Amino acid sequence: MSDQAVKRVIIIGAGQAGGEAALRLRHSGFGGDITLVGEEPAAPYQRPPLSKKYLSGELGMDRLLLRPAGVYADENIAFLAPLRAVWIDRANRRVRLEGGRELGYDALVLATGARARKLTLVGADLAGAHLLRTAGDVDAIRPRFVSGARLVVIGAGYIGLEVAAVARQTGLDVTVVEAAPRPLARVTSPEVAGFFLDEHAGKGVRFALGAQPAIIKGKEHVTGVGLADGSEIPADLVIAGIGVNPETTLAQHCALNVENGIVTDAQCRTSDPSIFAIGDCAARPMAHYRNRVARLESVHNAVEGAKIVAAVLTEQSHSVEAPWFWSDQYDLKLQIAGLFQSYTKIVLRGSMKERSFAAFYYNGERLIAVDAVNRPGEYLGAKMLIQTGRTLAPEVIADASRPMKELVAQAQ
Ligand SMILES: Cc1cc2nc3c(=O)[nH]c(=O)nc-3n(C[C@H](O)[C@H](O)[C@H](O)COP(=O)(O)OP(=O)(O)OC[C@H]3O[C@@H](n4cnc5c(N)ncnc54)[C@H](O)[C@@H]3O)c2cc1C
Fold first, then answer.
1. The CATH fold of domain 118-242
2. Are 384 and 366 in contact (CB under 8 A)?
3. Measuring from atom 10 of ligand 1, which residue has the nearest CA?
4. If you placed Cys at 218, which of 10, 81, 140, 223 could pair as Cys (CB 3.0 to 4.6 Å)?
5. pLDDT tier at 2 (50, 70, 90 boundaries)?
6. Closest atom of ligand 1 to CA, residue 37
């Protein structure tokens, strides 16, 4: 496909990645037709506040929107919602929408995100048992998310722990049930996970670790969570945060290459060169990690994909930023840069006791990631090093008497 011949772009999925892609494509000078199809009723919005300030009621829906809803019409972007795309005809380059309408495309962008994994337990459909992925999910949780209510959070990942933090701050009684022996098992080191465990315990959160939920009890409404060991935790509200599955149904039906996400090249092209995939639904080579193919679930990754597609379709260049993420719990601001998974060594700078530290992850001598808690300087410094492929010796980075900025300036 010659990108110069692209006159009609359809974007399926109007979340962070799809919304950004539509606007960035237009702002990059693309003058053709852009159609953005989204099955949710709202204009594209940010999900991170759903487990933070939207759950606590500090932010309303208007503050979640990526841009005011009128922007899409102003930018001559046809925004079709709530409407689901149900079929892709690759041979004729057409997309079928719910209700039967068909649209032709020259380039198609799949930005279908991910679905929250459902609990497969008896009782998971009782009133008071919830998932947390959409604004609608939080709106359904809110009436029971009140001081004095007993909440069981299933899953101690970032979303589960953020919910636990907001719940304690709102006065709920909170128990977190986690199948792994520690929280954040998939996303950080035991050292950093231990810090967050202590913080939550100090705020009154109870943990059942290495525990398997077996049943959600109740007649019409949740009354408790039964564990595999026979014990029961009383509950008025259950929120499950047990991960997501990439939404790849359309891609699979039209036989694109899918392996834990729609596989793309560095330009976000799928196995069909006229179809791109970005955001949570896609897995692409990571430039800063020897092109290891990874599927990331983050705002940065969604925006990065949108930028890449806009650049490719308008034949402009784009340099890729190293991955980053954040999580807010109580007054702790965790900022993460890089991908820690292949680390062989961890180096701490600062003090966990003072709630201000950074954990640097090394693979051999190479700095690959940082988890910085209330340490923005360390986060920014490490991000810059990873971005530019430089490193600092572990003993140098551990010396907190020297400012991070000074260390970064001397890094090779
Ligand atoms: C509670 C919560 C907290 C988070 N906190 C953070 C955080 O602190 N930091 C961070 O970096 N990231 C965070 N994330 C992750 C981040 O929000 C996601 O990585 C990001 O939203 C991914 O964007 P996306 O556009 O790929 O997917 P989504 O935002 O999920 O959007 C995909 C959209 O496509 C729609 N769709 C799917 N199939 C179709 C179809 N066939 N037709 C039409 N529409 C379709 C979906 O309904 C959805 O609206 C959080 C996520 C959640 C849920």
1. FAD/NAD(P)-binding domain (3.50.50)
2. no
3. 298
4. 223
5. very low
6. 43
Residue 279 CA to ligand 1 centre (angstroms): 8
| Ligand 1 closest atom vs CA 325 | 11
**What average pLDDT does the chain have?**
96
Query: Does residue 281 sit in helix, strand or coil?
Result: helix
- The sign of the dihedral angle between the CA atoms of 379, 380, 382, 388 is positive
Fold of 3-115+245-313: FAD/NAD(P)-binding domain (3.50.50)
pTM strictly above 0.90: yes
Tens digit of each residue's pLDDT (9 = 90 or more) over 247-284? 999 999 999 999 999 999 999 999 999 999 999 999 99
Q: What percent of the chain has pLDDT over 90?
A: 98
> Do 3-115+245-313 and 331-410 have matching folds?
no
Determine if the peptide bond prior to 44 is cis (ω within 30°).
Answer: no
Which protein residue has the closest C-alpha to ligand 1 atom 42? 84
**And the tokens for 309?**
């597609």
User: What are the residue ranges spanned by the domains of the chain?
Assistant: 3-115+245-313, 118-242, 331-410
CATH of domain 331-410: 3.30.390.30
Ligand 1 pocket list (CB less than 6 A): 12-18, 37-40, 47-48, 50-51, 84-85, 111-114, 132-133, 159, 247, 250, 279-281, 297-300, 302, 325-327
Instruction: Quickly state the pLDDT bin for 410 (edges 50, 70, 90).
Output: confident
Q: How do beta strands 94-97 and 102-104 pair? A: antiparallel
> Ligand 1: distance of its center to the CA of 118 in Å?
16
Alpha helices in 331-400 (DSSP H): 376-387, 394-397
200 CA from centroid of ligand 1 (Å): 26
